[in-house]
């Protein structure tokens, strides 16, 4: 992006914008090199890289927030670092030290400070770390070399409308297999979700609900976000499943619902046949933040929770608490906020 080009902060969506710098480090002979910032947003790799053929790669997503006093902060980057290492472990990729991960994110945010949206616009700087298997190789085995890179871009809402409810439909397809890579942030899960997303989008839904891949009777995920519901007796419920991504936002909401909103919280099966017990529902994630779910199409009928047009009061309160902490207006639990200095 040209230095003189102006960004319209209020109209940001979730689209790629090339920022000034990205971080890149390579792994060879058992070690990560020091890593460096670069202006070059192109990566040249062997045509036989495992990332290209066998999906040996994983990624993360987190955000930098501009506070009222102009400072910049990250939300729980240590959790993204640990989750990336879980993904690496599963995909036989080298561990990336948590400090190196966080330092790379900090360097990238600082170098691209001019892209961090002003406080009050609702915009954030989305940070995308990723690791790919590279180098010459053709057998189905781990790569000889790896690249760890972090880039960033300013974003607005992932689902159009922010706190306006959106509708979902149930997907006929699975994004991950039972005992597969559903708990990891592996690109293959997202490739597998593209067709289901397109079907939902073509039919006018914001996204689709993935069911548990073993029985297809329970809610697993809400597109690229986790699902939560508020029961009629005020419990915060979110699915427990071995095939969903352990969302950092979801685990944060479990704590906030309990400690800030004084709700009972529970991770348990969310049966499709029992949606009536919820008076509100939502999708949560770094990109999705908290997006209220208006309704879910099930058995050819739209099951509406609170309303198709208005956010429910508990979802709203959860949103205000989470976003308040992320932007520095509310004091969060200890250790959640990392200042970028
Ligand atoms: N589920 C999937 C499939 C995702 O891609 C994401 C996004 O990261 C989430 C859930 C939400 O996770 P988090 O809150 O850690 O961003
Ligand atoms: C995120 O919320 O960070 C995601 O990764 C979701 C999506 C953009 C893949």
UniProtKB/TrEMBL annotation:
This is Branched-chain-amino-acid aminotransferase. The keyword DNA repair does not apply. InterPro entries: Aminotrans_IV, Aminotrans_IV_CS, Aminotransferase-like, B_amino_transII, BCAT-like_C, BCAT-like_N, BCAT_family. Belongs to the class-IV pyridoxal-phosphate-dependent aminotransferase family. Transmembrane segments: none annotated. Pathway: Amino-acid biosynthesis; L-isoleucine biosynthesis; L-isoleucine from 2-oxobutanoate: step 4/4; Amino-acid biosynthesis; L-leucine biosynthesis; L-leucine from 3-methyl-2-oxobutanoate: step 4/4; Amino-acid biosynthesis; L-valine biosynthesis; L-valine from pyruvate: step 4/4. One of its GO terms (biological process) is isoleucine biosynthetic process. The modification N6-(pyridoxal phosphate)lysine is found at residue 185. PANTHER family: AMINO ACID AMINOTRANSFERASE (PTHR42825), BRANCHED-CHAIN-AMINO-ACID AMINOTRANSFERASE 3, CHLOROPLASTIC-RELATED (PTHR42825:SF2). Keywords: Amino-acid biosynthesis, Aminotransferase, Branched-chain amino acid biosynthesis, Pyridoxal phosphate, Transferase. GO terms for molecular function: L-isoleucine-2-oxoglutarate transaminase activity; L-leucine-2-oxoglutarate transaminase activity; L-valine-2-oxoglutarate transaminase activity. Its EC number is 2.6.1.42.
């Amino acid at each position: 992006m040209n230095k003189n080009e102006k960004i319209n902060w209020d109209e940001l969506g979730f689209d790629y914008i090339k920022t000034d710098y990205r971080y890149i480090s390579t792994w060879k002979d058992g070690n990560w090199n020091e890593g460096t910032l670069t202006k070059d947003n192109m990566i040249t790799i062997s045509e036989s890289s495992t990332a290209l053929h066998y999906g040996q790669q994983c990624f993360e997503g987190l955000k930098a927030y501009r506070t009222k006093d102009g400072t910049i902060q990250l939300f729980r980057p240590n959790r993204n670092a640990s989750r990336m290492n879980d993904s690496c472990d599963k995909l036989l990729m080298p561990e990336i030290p948590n400090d190196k991960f966080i330092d790379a994110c900090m360097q990238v945010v600082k170098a691209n400070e001019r892209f961090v949206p002003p406080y009050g616009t609702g915009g954030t700087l989305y940070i995308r770390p990723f690791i790919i298997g590279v180098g010459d190789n053709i057998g189905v085995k781990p790569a000889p070399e790896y690249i760890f890179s972090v880039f960033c871009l300013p974003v607005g809402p992932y689902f159009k409308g922010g706190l306006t409810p959106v509708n979902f439909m149930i997907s006929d397809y699975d994004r991950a297999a039972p005992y597969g890579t559903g708990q990891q942030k592996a690109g293959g899960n997202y490739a597998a979700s593209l067709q289901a997303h397109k079907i939902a989008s073509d039919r006018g839904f914001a996204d689709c609900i993935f069911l548990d891949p073993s029985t297809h009777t329970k809610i697993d995920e809400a597109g690229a976000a986790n699902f939560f519901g508020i029961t009629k007796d005020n419990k915060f419920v979110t699915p427990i499943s071995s095939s969903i991504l352990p969302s950092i936002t979801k685990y944060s909401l479990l704590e906030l619902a309990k400690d800030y909103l004084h709700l009972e919280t529970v991770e348990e099966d969310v049966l499709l046949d029992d949606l009536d017990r919820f008076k509100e529902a939502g999708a949560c994630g770094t990109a999705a933040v908290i997006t209220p779910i208006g309704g879910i199409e099930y058995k050819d009928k739209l099951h509406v929770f609170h309303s198709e047009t208005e956010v429910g009061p508990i979802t709203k309160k959860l949103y205000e608490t989470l976003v308040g902490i992320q932007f520095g207006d509310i004091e969060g639990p200890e250790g959640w906020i990392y200042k970028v200095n």
